[in-house]
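cron nightly-structures :: item 1 of 1
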Amino acid sequence: MSRLGCLLADAGQKEPARRWYQAAAERGHTIAMINLAILLEDDDRDAAMAWTLRAAEEGTGLTAQHNYGIFLEEDGRLDEALDLYRQAAERGDREAAEEAARLSR
């Protein structure tokens, strides 16, 4: 389901991609959660944040922690963003480490 969503998204078919990502995300597929959030970000930021948070809480996706940190930073919640960046950095996310260093200045 998630792979089909990727193929559809790559082909510019946003709505069918959203449906397949959501079906996979509802079944616990964290990559689908992240991809769904990215797809929804411009149209439904709250839903995008919710899916990103769910993926981050699953603890399997560095990208989710990093992306949720970005949402928090954009909302001015800098301490929370820094915590997430640091968590992702500790798990090997180099970009999150750079974000943490930038916010720590």
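cron nightly-structures :: done
The chain has a mean pLDDT of 92.
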